What we know:
Structural class: mainly alpha
Amino acid sequence: MKSFGERISYLRNKKGLSQEELAKILKIGKSTLGMYETDKREPKHEMTAKIADYFEVSIDWLTTGRENKKESDNTLPEEVLLDVIKKAEAEYKVNLRDDPFVESALRDLIHNLARMKQSAQKEK
């Protein structure tokens, strides 16, 4: 999903909500939500936060499609992450990157496993 609007639409559909239902929840007009979803209008910061809270996603992910986590010395390079994900996709013949929640969870899992391994090696 490349755009803010696509991510809102994705989240709404994943919850099984119509535009009218989500608009009522957010206390905005259906046409306003429609403009958000088609990237014809951007919400104010407060509304962006309200949408992120409702769907339990980060504002960073909602607005950019990526989690803005602090980079640290033990963060795996992007090419290493992609290599691991691609190998798993090939092995299990599935697309693990078509659902942003699955991809995010998978990236977190890989990072956490690498950190655990690093910690265990330092203790030796």
